Amino acid sequence: MSSFNTDDFIKDSVRKLKAYQVNEVDAHKKALKLDANESNYILGKNIKKKYADYIKNTLINLYPDPNSKNLLKSIEKFYGISSKNFIFGNGSDELISIILLSLNKSVTVNIPAPSFSMYEIIAKYNDLNAKIIRLNDENFDLPANIESVVDKNTKNLYFFSYPNNPTGNHFDRKIIYGLLENKNNLVVVDEAYIFFSGEKSFLNELTKYENLIVLKTFSKIGLAGLRFGLLFSGDKLINEFKKIKLPYNINSLTLSSIEFFLKNFDEFEKNIKKTVKQRKVLYEKLSVLPFIKVYRSDANFLLIKLNDEKNKIKFDNFLNGNNIIIRNFTGGMEIYYRITVGTAKENKKLVDYFIEFSKNL
Amino acid sequence: MSSFNTDDFIKDSVRKLKAYQVNEVDAHKKALKLDANESNYILGKNIKKKYADYIKNTLINLYPDPNSKNLLKSIEKFYGISSKNFIFGNGSDELISIILLSLNKSVTVNIPAPSFSMYEIIAKYNDLNAKIIRLNDENFDLPANIESVVDKNTKNLYFFSYPNNPTGNHFDRKIIYGLLENKNNLVVVDEAYIFFSGEKSFLNELTKYENLIVLKTFSKIGLAGLRFGLLFSGDKLINEFKKIKLPYNINSLTLSSIEFFLKNFDEFEKNIKKTVKQRKVLYEKLSVLPFIKVYRSDANFLLIKLNDEKNKIKFDNFLNGNNIIIRNFTGGMEIYYRITVGTAKENKKLVDYFIEFSKNL
Prior knowledge:
The structure is a homodimer.
Chain A: H1 12-15, E1 32-33, H2 45-55, H3 69-79, E2 86-89, H4 91-102, E3 108-113, H5 118-125, E4 129-134, E5 156-161, H6 173-180, E6 185-190, E7 212-217, E8 229-233, H7 235-244, H8 252-263, H9 266-287, E9 292-294, E10 301-306, H10 312-321, E11 324-325, E12 327-328, E13 336-340, H11 344-359
Parallel strand pairs in A: 1-11, 3-4, 3-5, 5-6, 6-7
Antiparallel strand pairs in A: 2-8, 7-8, 9-10, 10-13, 12-13
């Protein structure tokens, strides 16, 4: 046959994209891996054994049972929300996909920048109009009069990472409430990092606002490998999302694991507290270093900025040379780095490296 | 605020859909569960122990590593295809979604009927034109001159389940090759059931046809709970699909499990052989029963048809009353049932029930 032309089949919005690059890191090697907002706390021996005993009885030959009564009850209890108002996602990524796939093409998707990159990537290949809301340069706040910067002639969806990734701050709740009061808006509050913030969840507002969607995940507190997220919304919206959620989107081992860990959540509470404490320590140690600015954070990471962009190449080489993996950005954010708050030991190691770098500048 | 209107945000194609209903079955109850084409063979004690030991060391606190060299190498060896030509899916469902999400809206999606229901459901909520190709009533073959029944003014995508679900037959390879020779066609061959068929995989044709996509899964041979599928295609297409595959779509426990089971595949080979043998036994026992017609099958299930539709209500009541779960269909297929080939013991039990029903007709 003559040559096959992908353009005949694959849509423009996909062909224009670049594939998302996953950092290739061998976790078993002794790198200082602080790039992905994972929890580096290892499960205690006792609970690890109990966990292994629990999941080994999972019936992996059968399709997963997403309606498992035990699991649904545990989640209802944990969040105080009826199971008819949530769906599971294969990580928040899949839930973001479900939301965006369900939308009319006339809806504008408003995304703060900088924020979680997947909002924009997924909006684009769903052929939606993605509008960037530039955050305040100083402290990453939303514009106070946010509705004056968006298109008032369309329906508007907003993604708010709360606290925001990668900046670490939480946006002004009053601005979010203001948007929710307007029924021409749909507001997604992504609470991936809220465990570390002390802020109140927007789950409490679900009964008041039919145009609110709340996303949750266990990825940041020690279970990133399980890929488990939750989408909560009122009856009207959740019933639409249920139609396009793939029926068996969460595997049986993850379902068993979540069931187990919800019953043993103390372990995570403990680690969250440690992380919050370590965030303070790391902030204090890093903020005295002259070559960077450190931003306050409510999440399990700190954003830093090089004070002099001339140091970037040297800094990048230093990180590479010492096998220190932190998150760097593109698109105007080249001198910003996001550092996951590690264990006390990891943080000390990182600070020592940074002091060394600072001395050699 | 005044009432929120989902119509403002949610697209027509989603609002028109009904949610896919998952059969609610408590697998731990002593039902005869033969509805979902799962493998009912339990792992041997020895391998089960080795497996439990293996996966308990999975680092669930870290994001999954989809580029794990060990895993990629095992899969390359298993299928004889380079890792640059496949992507993983959270079950075949997600891979079907990725294909359909990537398409120009002008592409027509041609779907044989009866076949796997998700092709049409997912095509619809992706706002694609889904055209049904009615299979021959007698033996479920494709129309020999298939291109005369499709729209020649558009690009055409075809989904072929090979062997076909729920009919169990495999389509004429010549017809599929004919379609592949035309570069205005894109052909997806879904080999979910090929382990049981003795047929040659279309993977061998990948180097010849750039417009071929092959889907694989381990769900039907004993690992449905893991949700692991694979999409194979030539360089051009795979690079497009890689852009919209979510970066961490397979959880760490599934990745570890697949790595383990590929090294211990004997266990599954053994069970596949048992299933093929049992399919023959079950076919022979059922085909002598006067109230049904049984179709020959190359898969791990048999399709049966009630010879008299007046028996349907009685048959359904009998199945319910005895807690026998097999798959029934709607949309003109109400007198057809798909029975998963179970273990020798399960099949005997089923046959005994059917004989009992037959006697009381």
